[in-house]
């Protein structure tokens, strides 16, 4: 199904191939891309679909670096303020959603039967969304009949120190930026289209936020990622590698 044309490996979209891909991917899913190419033939939609996958793959590598850097930076500051098992310290004042996520991770890890659960295991088991939520205002704590106050219990005593290379940064600013990147990450992870996002802005934002924590990691991500390469590749004229 592949042929060489002008030195570029291209996929051959016969009528039968297009029909099978549409059936496998689903007409509904492909319809998003058909609409995006303004009703052009389905081959063009499939090329755009492949480009979306390649771009998502390129972004995901950067987001992985950001996520690991973020959780380690935040864990480090929380551990310094509240102890290695900060998530069990009542002074942290986690809301019900945060407590539930922590409990779910500990239950899941406990089922492995590999001995006591370490802080490192808990930290690694928590989602990107959890860490971003700690930069929010905090939700309800039903047992205390009040809302958590993450500004006072998390941001000021600990988490603002996770971003030592940022200009004066407010909690709301950090949360807004990282929540945008959380949405990007989740769309990619759930195989959703990212074709209508501001790709250059997302790219610069990932590097900027990573640089708030570690300029070295930022430079490393900038050197090794393929986002610019995919963005420079016209989706309609050549195939791209995932």
Q: What pattern of helices and strands is seen along the backbone?
A: EEHHHHHHEEHHHHH
Structural class: mainly alpha
Approximately how much beta-strand content do the residues carry?
under 5%
Mean pLDDT across every amino acid position:
92
Distance, first to last CA? 17 Å
- Rg from alpha-carbon coordinates: 22 Å
Which range best describes the helical content: under 10%, 10-25%, 25-40%, 40-55%, 55-70% or over 70%?
A: 55-70%
Which residues sit in consecutive blocks of at least 5 with pLDDT less than 50?
A: 3-8
Biggest pleated sheet: 2 strands, antiparallel
Strand runs, count: 4
Task: Describe what this molecule looks like in 3D.
The protein is mainly alpha-helical. 60% of the residues lie in helices and 5% in strands. It is built from eleven helices and four strands, in the order ββααααααββααααα. It has helices at residues 15-25, 27-36, 42-82, 96-110, 119-125, 128-133, 150-155, 171-189, 199-213, 215-224, 227-231; strands spanning 2-5, 8-11, 140-141, 146-147. The strands form two sheets. The chain has a two-stranded antiparallel ribbon with strand order 1-2. β3 (140-141) and β4 form a beta hairpin. α8 crosses α9. The chain is elongated and about 65 Å long. Residues 3-8 have low confidence and may be disordered.
């Amino acid at each position: 199904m592949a042929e060489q044309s002008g030195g570029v490996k291209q996929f051959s979209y016969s009528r039968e191939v297009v029909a099978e891909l549409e059936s496998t991917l689903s007409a509904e899913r492909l319809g998003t891309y058909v609409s995006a190419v303004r009703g052009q033939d389905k081959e063009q939609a499939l090329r755009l679909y492949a480009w979306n996958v390649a771009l998502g793959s390129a972004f995901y590598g950067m987001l992985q670096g950001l996520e690991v850097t973020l959780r380690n930076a935040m864990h480090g500051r929380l551990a310094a303020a509240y102890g290695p098992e900060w998530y069990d310290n009542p002074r942290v004042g986690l809301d019900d959603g945060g407590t539930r996520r922590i409990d779910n991770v500990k239950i899941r890890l406990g089922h492995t039967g590999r001995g006591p659960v370490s802080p490192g295991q808990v930290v690694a088991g928590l989602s990107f969304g959890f860490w971003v939520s700690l930069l929010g205002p905090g939700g309800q704590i039903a047992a205390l009949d009040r809302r958590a106050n993450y500004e006072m219990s998390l941001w000021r005593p600990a988490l603002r120190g996770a971003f030592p290379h940022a200009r004066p940064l407010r909690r709301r600013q950090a949360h807004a930026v990282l929540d945008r990147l959380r949405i990007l990450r989740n769309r990619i992870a759930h195989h959703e289209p990212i074709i209508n996002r501001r790709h250059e802005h997302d790219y610069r934002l990932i590097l900027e936020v990573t640089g708030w924590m570690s300029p070295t990691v930022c430079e490393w991500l900038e050197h090794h990622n393929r986002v610019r390469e995919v963005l420079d590749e016209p989706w309609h004229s050549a195939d791209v590698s995932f």
